[in-house]
Design a protein that fits this description.
This protein is an alpha/beta fold and 217 residues long. The protein has one domain (14-214): Rossmann fold (3-Layer(aba) Sandwich). Helix content is 31%, strand content 18%. The protein has helices at residues 29-36, 53-66, 78-89, 142-151, 175-189, 191-199; strands at 14-18, 40-42, 71-76, 98-104, 129-134, 155-159, 203-205, 212-214. It has an eight-stranded mixed sheet with strand order 2-1-3-4-5-6-7-8, with helices on both faces. Helix 3 links the parallel strand 3 (71-76) and strand 4 (98-104). Helix 2 packs across helix 3. The longest helix has 15 residues, at 175-189. The radius of gyration is 16 Å and the shape is globular. It comes from Sphingomonas crocodyli. One of its GO terms (molecular function) is hydrolase activity. This is Alpha/beta hydrolase.
């Protein structure tokens, strides 16, 4: 864990995490990161069984404007979809404070039967982004996850054996994901490295706890 990377919180980005409500229970990696890292916080998205796009986007917009520091967004499932919709609906002037976004297994509105979240946003994200997917996610086939990343102008990180990245999928506090986050932040701080990242066809990351490796197909 890289909790010492931000020794000067006033000048360092904060990591704002948007959970997937279906996964937000004991053992969830987002809650663990927030408890163990000084740079992480979790945004409460509520627990409604029928998510409302305007309500979710509004919560995120308020949190970004209250942050008082550059923000790295980390969304999972519905949280990742919320980030994409917020980016799609906001004006261009609202994005400068966003350093980057890590979007883990973005929810497909059709799969989660969230009519008010449909359709899937198609605009290129106005900040550096990385989509993470798993080869055995029953709700988001890896080919679909890769297609979404390309559609959003994002890089892509492939994991093996992480399912839907929830507590039931055996990834625990997801140390590989935390390592990916820190590497991603380092890369977006380096403009030349960021260009390299976003033009790679794929990052490939193997099963939990095996450590990430960069791969050019």
């Amino acid at each position: 864990m890289a909790t010492t990377r931000y020794e000067h919180p006033s000048t360092a980005p904060m990591v704002l995490m948007l959970p997937d409500p279906a996964s937000d229970r004991p053992g969830y990696w987002q809650r663990h990161w927030a408890a163990s890292r000084m740079d992480c916080a979790v945004l409460d998205l509520g627990t409604s069984a029928t998510p409302n796009r305007n309500s979710l986007v509004g919560r995120l917009d308020q949190a970004v404007h209250r942050a008082g520091a550059p923000v790295v967004l980390v969304g999972h499932g519905l949280g990742a979809l919320t980030i994409a919709w917020w980016a799609n609906l906001m004006s261009g002037e609202d994005a400068p404070g966003i350093v980057a976004a890590l979007l883990v297994a973005p929810a497909d509105p059709q799969e989660i039967e969230a009519v008010e979240m449909a359709p899937l946003p198609c605009s290129v994200l106005p900040f550096p982004a990385l989509v993470a997917g798993s080869d055995d996610d029953p709700a988001l086939p890896i080919e679909r996850a890769f297609s979404i990343a390309r559609q959003w102008g994002a890089g892509f990180a492939r994991f093996d054996g992480c399912g839907g990245f929830g507590p039931a999928d055996g990834i625990g506090f997801w140390p590989d994901g935390e390592e990916l986050l820190d590497r991603f932040i380092d890369l977006v701080d380096d403009h030349e490295a960021r260009h390299h990242l976003l033009n790679l066809p794929e990052w490939r990351l193997s099963a939990p706890n095996s450590g990430p490796a960069l791969l050019r197909r």
